[in-house]
Amino acid sequence: MASPVARTFCFGPLTIPLAQLFLLTKHTLGLVNIKPIRPGHVLVVTRRQVARFNELSQEEIADLFAQGQRVSKIIERLYSADGLTLCIQDGSAAGQTVPHVHLHVIPRHIGDFANNDDIYSVLDGTGKVPQQTHIDNEQRKPRSLADMTSEAQILRREIGDWDSETVS
After folding, report:
1. pTM for the predicted model, two decimal places
2. CA 58 → CA 18, 68, 78, distances in Å?
3. 104 has catalytic annotation
4. What single-letter DSSP state applies at residue 99?
5. Catalytic one among 102, 104, 109, 134?
6. How does pLDDT run along the chain (168 residues), one tens digit per residue?
7. Could you tell me the CA-to-CA distances from 3 to 17, 30, 105 in Å, in that order?
8. Which of 24, 48, 130, 167 could covalently link to 162 via disulfide, CB atoms 3.0 to 4.6 Å apart?
């Protein structure tokens, strides 16, 4: 396999190093979140760069959701979650901030938000994360490359290595 920093992938206008990926299939990739709203908040992203869900092929949709399910089982177990929020923000009117189809996988715990649906305003950048998480949307700072690489390595071990043919 190539060096973790030698290979990159596009997520909208962003360049993501291989070291931040934990899942790679023919149509999707899993990446850790630079500014998670809850510990364990990860993304399952289409490899083909398209902004809107309706631009995906049936194969891409099937793989996106199959991998979302696969990742959700691992995230729920690793973060001892009581449940998960799985969502796609499709278009800027829906709160999408990166113009590339992606599924948020967010571990949830009972009482993590006073009003359960407040998580959606946090996702679109208009709300604040509850105080107990020590993250405020305006003050959220990007995690270090070392922190993200460490989390990706843990998740990669749980997922299992991908076939080297899917990297190219």
Report:
1. 0.84
2. 26, 15, 30
3. no
4. S
5. 102
6. 444 433 889 999 999 999 999 999 999 999 999 999 899 999 999 999 999 999 999 999 999 999 999 999 999 999 999 999 999 999 999 889 899 999 999 999 998 887 777 777 777 666 555 544 433 345 567 899 999 999 999 999 999 866 555 554
7. 10, 18, 27
8. 24
